[in-house]
Write a structure and sequence with these properties.
By secondary structure, the chain is mostly helical. It has 19 helices and two strands. It has a two-stranded antiparallel ribbon. Helix 2 runs antiparallel to helix 9, helix 3 runs antiparallel to helix 11 and helix 5 crosses helix 6.
Length: about 450
């Protein structure tokens, strides 16, 4: 059956979608971001920047998730509306690459933890950490991914409590861990932290592809709890506080391996199990979204309809090959550039959704593609220039403002009469439903 947006019959229950999405909650990356930020600007500024980020993510994802739920559109379909043909190709390619890169990072954390505890060749641990994700992800969200993450969530929560308790027993209470300060740089410390969290605005795209699986009757709950401020208060706030506590207790370096060492040092083998649980949950989302968007990209570019199960295997192979290279040497730069493209996408998507809610839509998508190009090029140029480090840091904010402003100016508007915003018009070419609606 072909249809443009996911019908109500293909949606997931409230609990299933919440548990599937909350896999994102348990990444060691969130501990690392807080630790790295505190090392750069101090703990008080980190807490302020974290709170501002929670508010921003909560508001934007409330808007985007409710729109995705009511329309059933995917990132690719929304991008086709905003940017035309170029959007239907570039957006899923960008999304797949970013999800793959994060999958490489998070999978390598498991490998490092296993090598830290058991020893051995890191390449074999890399292989294990990519191969075991294939059966985890191959069935899709509606098959058993939600159940797996629901089962593992309590283990992660208990594990985080155990890490804090064990670190306190072994190292003593770290006095002043919430008040440690660092000399400020050219920008206010809280703004520096806020800009760091803007680097993970890809979660807005993640949200959109997951939220479309929700039922319309659950839109309010998902907008606030599943994808909104409640989720980010726990994901950024609670995980960040745990990271900051471990920073004070163990004096760990601002790296993901430093966080791993602190967890394993606190709990021993139980710490290794905690890392496996946490990273399995987060990588279920990374591998799932990388495989689905690879499928969409190839179908759109080459007209090849390959089952998503095959793309899960391809994702695992690519992740392993990337792990074998000097991954940090070039992927961090690639992620910085992709971060510019993603923040521009989010800014334009917010404007598009707000317009659609008011039934005032652009008459053509060409202006949207030009706005995305202009803002992205400007953001990348600011990122790579070496004249001013301040402007390089401000590149995400400049990109967002330029993307939103240029999109408004470059897209002539027309009143969409007789159409509810929750039911977009059907395009000339209908879209085949993705595999998550019909698990492999």
């Amino acid at each position: 059956m072909e249809y443009e947006h996911l019908p109500e019959s293909g949606r997931l229950s409230r609990w299933s979608l919440t548990m599937a999405w909350w896999a994102m909650f348990s990444a060691m990356f969130w501990l690392y971001v807080a630790v790295a930020s505190a090392g750069a600007v101090g703990v008080p500024a980190t807490l302020v920047g974290m709170a501002a980020s929670i508010g921003t993510f909560g508001v934007i994802n409330l808007l985007l998730s409710r729109y995705a739920i009511h329309t059933g559109l995917s990132v690719e379909l929304l991008s086709r509306r905003m940017f035309g043909a170029v959007g239907s190709l570039l957006a899923p390619a960008l999304f797949a690459a970013t999800a793959l890169y994060y999958g490489v990072f998070e999978g390598s954390i498991v490998a490092v933890a296993l090598q830290e505890y058991f020893g051995g060749d890191i390449r074999l641990w890399y292989l294990l950490c990519t191969v075991y994700m294939i059966p985890v992800v191959i069935g899709g969200v509606a098959a058993w991914l939600d159940k797996l993450n629901g089962i593992l969530l309590p283990f992660y929560v208990v594990g985080m409590v155990a890490v804090v308790v064990a670190a306190t027993v072994k190292r003593g209470y770290p006095t002043g861990w919430l008040t440690t300060t660092v000399a400020s740089g050219p920008l206010p410390g809280w703004l520096t932290v806020y800009l760091v969290y803007m680097g993970v605005w890809v979660l807005m795209m993640y949200t959109f592809d997951y939220a479309r699986l929700g039922r319309r009757t659950d839109a309010g709950f998902h907008g606030t709890v599943t994808f909104g401020w409640v989720f980010y208060a726990l994901t950024f706030g609670v995980n960040g506080l745990v990271g900051l506590y471990l920073l004070g207790a163990w004096d760990i370096a601002g790296t993901e391996t430093g966080v791993v060492e602190a967890v394993v040092g606190s709990l021993g083998f139980a710490g290794v199990l905690l890392i496996i649980v946490s990273q399995t949950r987060i990588n279920s989302a990374n591998f799932y979204l990388a495989s689905t968007n690879l499928q969409v990209f190839v179908r759109r570019a080459l007209r090849l309809d390959v089952p998503r199960a095959a793309w899960v295997v391809v994702t695992a192979v690519l992740a392993y090959l990337l792990m074998l290279t000097d991954v940090l040497g070039y992927l961090l730069q690639a992620l910085a550039w992709q971060g510019v493209l993603i923040t521009a996408w989010v800014a334009i998507a917010v404007v598009y959704v707000l317009r659609d809610r008011g039934r005032v839509m652009p008459r053509t998508a060409s202006g949207g593609a030009l706005a995305w190009l202009i803002s992205s090029v400007a953001g990348i140029l600011l990122t790579v220039q070496e004249v001013s480090t301040t402007w390089a840091q401000l590149a995400p904010v400049v990109t967002v403002l330029l993307a939103a402003g240029s999109y408004v100016l470059l897209t002539p508007r027309a009143r969409a009469a007789g159409r509810a915003s929750s039911e977009p018009e059907t395009p000339e070419e209908p879209e085949v439903a993705p595999d998550e609606a019909q698990p492999v």
